[in-house]
Amino acid sequence: MKDFLDKNRILLGALALTLIAGLVVIAQRWGVEAENKTYDVVLDYSELELLAEQSEHDIAWWLEQFRDMGITRVGLTEESLSSLMEKSPMAVTATMMDELMQDANWRSNYPERFVRQMEERGYDRFDVLVEVAGQEAIDFVTEAIGARFPAGSFLLDIDNGLSSQYRYEPVLRAYILLDGSVNDTLYEATYSYRDTKGKGFAERNDIASSKLMAISLGLMPEKVELIQGLGMEIIPRTMSYNGHNDTRYAQAVVAGYEKHGIVPEYIIAGGEAVIGYDDGEFALDYIRDNHITVGLIETNVQRENIIQSGIEKVARGTDLNTVRVFSVWNYIQFRYGFYGYEGAEEIENTLFRTIVERNIRVIYFKPIKQTSNSYAYITDIGVYRDMFDGLNARLARHGISMGRASVMENYQPARLLLLALGLGAGICGALLPGTFLPMRRKWTLALAGAAAVCVAGAWVVMPNTFRLLSSFASAVVFACLAAAFFLQAAKRAGQTIPARSSLRRILPVSAGVLVIAVLLSLAGAVMTAAPLSSTDFMLELGIFRGVKAAQLLPLAFFCLLYVSYYGVFEKSRTSNTLQIRDIVSALRWTIPVWALVLAGLAGLVGYYYLARTGNEADVPISTLELLARNVLEEIFLARPRTKEFLVAFPAIMLSVYCAVRRMPFWTAVFGLAGTIGLTSVCNTFMHIRTPLYLGFIRTGLSLVFGILLGCVYMLCFDLLCRLGRLLRKKYVEAE
């Protein structure tokens, strides 16, 4: 290691300068995150209505209770044909023509004049026929359709005659035919007919509905008056669908807002797009002129945001006046009495992690449901009060409070700093061959120069991709450099410390090696996070790619290093370079059965490790581990990563111990496990949405606990080794 440092002084100095550039970016990002300390809650009115129906109180009482908790904003979805049919006092019916046309006598159910107009106009099975009764319903529906749909896209008939101004005398019934297309049509899931032998006969796709039935027609006046009368603010939810979302539609939507005196605090787009996206930038102008904050809705797998047409364009067009929104998905609503808790503790835990770890600043809250009945709500207001009180108390430790959602400043790292970060990754990569090959200084310098040229070219030609490549490369090469350090240090300890030395002598050395290795990985974490430390990545408008590759490549590099330093489990190898005979020995090695069994076990462990990675993990986490995580979150400001302090960090200490005891096989096993921890440190900072202070605290706690557990593990392993020697001496050697 000393020779490596002496030979690469120039490059290591340059690497230190690039690390300073990374720390500058990290400090600037830290300042941005420090101001992002307020979250908001928006109540879902529709589900709150359903909750009120199942309780002894009306919707107004429930709204008052939440208002008293400090929650003053209500998400109110605009009415549509579907909602008017399902849960409104208005007499509205909307039917697909496909369904009507299957009845030969359907014409007899409608006025002759209207049917004749339909015949003259023409219709098909993708159209929607709407029937409305009562003056209030007719006024609401016809005015909304007249304002939102072009005149030629629908046919309207009222029993006392049609007026082009859409203003009518009191009438009893109105009929509307909306022109639909195959692009608007919604189908049932494909199914097949079966014969008497159970064999499939023919597949069928039945028309179920149309997007036309979901298009927003306006806010229900009675609901608006109720919410505003309680002193609460409405966050309108408008459903917009491509092909029916032009400027005309957007102007009608905004006119509806203005009619009720609503200027939304947040725009949380519904449906497929932001309003008016079909033919212009109406939404961008409206949002920018009224200083409205754009909501980015996180997906239900807690990664990235829901893709809606125009949402990213609007977010960037408003200089990222944007917040991330967490919708309480139905699987979260069911977590009452979950994991053995008595109440809503696990939902509180979910909201806590959402706000603290993922830069979520708006919670779109839906009432809690019973685990055993997906239609039954928890109607005890005390449950909600306790949950939000507990949540706010825990958030206060992080300096986060309830109020208007804070918006992060649009921070972008300077381009020259990004170049320095890319050069740092290139220099570190150029140093790696020297850790296992007999590289002369001039060749290492030449390799670093070539890397610098490539980095500079990528910086000029593809600046956006450059950030991702720089971040990915840093995550890999610094973890590899840390692995090379601890393996060289372990071998050096084995060469300088007598094999029979006491644990008292080995423990400080192994702990020191672990600390330095983690610090090297932490430097890589800084270089990984810095290129992507812009606000758009913190809002997950862009995300880090290649997490699994960044975890696997250092493990493969460790295997290469081990063969270079130890050959095939050699106890007295002096060189630290890869040789031809190492490859030949590996190819000629007669693999014993125990090695095959161990390889199989390693494969299973590797699969489990990778399958658990990410929010879409293939392997579920056990209830016991989840409960343990919850306890750690409540005790500490940030939860240390389980695989680091329980496995990987103690394994690095055990690898040093085994090197001293001249046990090369176990040095390899524990060293490979330890390398997982070094990649994990970088992985912690690959989650760009997570505030930096959590990553540093998490790594620090993992290191402290890892050292403590490493001492315990080492003592236990030492006792097992002694016991093994006694048993071998007593039985094997005696026999």
Any descriptors?
735 residues; alpha/beta; four-stranded antiparallel β-sheet; 27 helices; 55% helix; 12% strand; elongated
- How many DSSP E strands? 20
Strand content: 5-15%
Gross morphology: elongated
Evaluate the radius of gyration: 33 Å
SSE arrangement:
Elements: H1 2-7, H2 9-34, E1 38-44, H3 45-53, H4 59-68, E2 73-77, H5 81-86, E3 91-96, H6 97-100, H7 112-121, E4 128-133, H8 135-148, E5 154-158, E6 173-178, E7 185-187, E8 191-194, E9 200-204, E10 207-210, H9 221-229, E11 233-237, E12 239-240, H10 247-259, E13 266-267, E14 270-271, H11 282-289, E15 293-297, H12 311-317, E16 322-327, H13 330-333, H14 345-357, E17 360-365, E18 369-370, E19 373-377, H15 381-396, E20 401-402, H16 415-431, H17 441-461, H18 463-496, H19 503-529, H20 535-538, H21 547-566, H22 580-588, H23 593-611, H24 623-635, H25 642-660, H26 664-686, H27 692-732
Parallel strand pairs: 1-2, 1-17, 1-20, 2-11, 12-14, 13-15, 15-16, 16-17
Antiparallel strand pairs: 3-4, 4-6, 5-6, 7-10, 8-9, 18-19
Helix pairs in contact: 2-16, 2-19, 11-12, 14-15, 16-17, 16-18, 17-18, 18-19, 18-21, 18-25, 18-26, 19-25, 19-26, 19-27, 21-26, 25-26, 25-27
Overview of this protein structure:
This protein is α/β, with parallel strands linked by helices and 735 residues long. 55% of the residues lie in helices and 12% in strands. It is built from 27 helices and 20 strands. Strands 1, 2, 11, 13, 15, 16, 17 and 20 form an eight-stranded parallel sheet that branches. Strand 18 (369-370) and strand 19 (373-377) form a beta hairpin. Helix 18 packs antiparallel against helix 19 (503-529), helix 19 packs parallel to helix 26 (664-686) and helix 25 (642-660) packs antiparallel against helix 26 (664-686). The model is unreliable at 161-170 (pLDDT under 50).
